[in-house]
Design goal:
single chain, seven-stranded mixed beta sheet
Length: 234
């Protein structure tokens, strides 16, 4: 996958206005450094900056130079590398977040171990990913995963327990989880029409009616807050 070409074709849509509750749980308890792994165009970093100001040092990470540059235009520090390895030393962050990234990576267990590696002992890892319940269907297709929400999804988990198991095998301890409906931004329909008609893509984030969403049947979002143990698990 050429992620820069993908980023130019598909602008990132963010229909959230607040920091996710489970991530807030980790951030409200302390201060330090937080990294958004797969930060895209910086939407979550924007919300973190608005909600926490200088209480947390914010860093993003991206495999796409195009999206990294768009996030930097919002004033964020963004690290890049082409291979999915965050270019920092071990235990560099107090909190690592990865929102709708793990379903894209070639190996989810390698990715979970990377999140654990860059998080200090006692720190937190926050992950969001789709869960595909029985009977769920969406019109896009991936050769590895079948009918999916996004053609770049190489997997869609079939249960919340499956997500938690990947994190547990990386040595993380799940401390809280939340399963909520997944919504589809109406603005995405407008972007699809503009692509079909070969019209220029908008560079502004959706607002007003375009920012509204509809739920996708039989799909859920699994949010997980996990902790890296203070000591290695025997």
């Amino acid at each position: 996958m050429d992620w820069d070409t993908y980023a130019r074709t598909y602008r990132q849509l963010d229909d959230e206005s607040t920091v996710p509750p489970l991530l807030r749980r980790a951030l409200d308890a302390a201060t330090g450094r937080v990294v958004d792994v797969g930060c895209g165009e910086g939407a979550l970093l924007d919300r973190l900056r608005d909600g926490y100001g200088d209480a947390w040092a914010l860093v993003g990470y991206e495999v796409s130079d195009v999206r990294a540059e768009l996030a930097r235009e919002h004033g964020h520090t963004v690290l890049t590398s082409p291979d999915g390895t965050v270019p920092v030393e071990d235990a560099a962050f107090d909190v690592a977040a990865a929102c709708h990234v793990i379903e894209h990576v070639p190996d989810d267990e390698v990715f979970a171990r990377e999140l654990a590696r860059i998080t200090r002992p006692g720190g937190y890892v926050y992950v969001e990913t789709p869960v595909k319940l029985p009977g769920a269907w969406y019109f896009r297709r991936n050769p590895q995963a079948g009918w999916v929400l996004d053609s770049t999804h190489v997997r869609e988990y079939r249960s919340a327990a499956a997500v938690n198991e990947v994190l547990s095998r990386a040595g993380l301890t799940v401390v809280a989880e939340e399963l909520t409906p997944i919504t589809y931004p109406l603005a995405a329909a407008g972007l699809l029409v503009r692509r079909v008609l070969r019209l220029p893509q908008s560079t502004s984030r959706p607002s007003g009616f375009a920012a509204r969403t509809v739920s996708i049947p039989r799909y859920r979002q699994q949010a997980v807050l996990a902790r890296r143990p203070d000591r290695p698990v025997a």
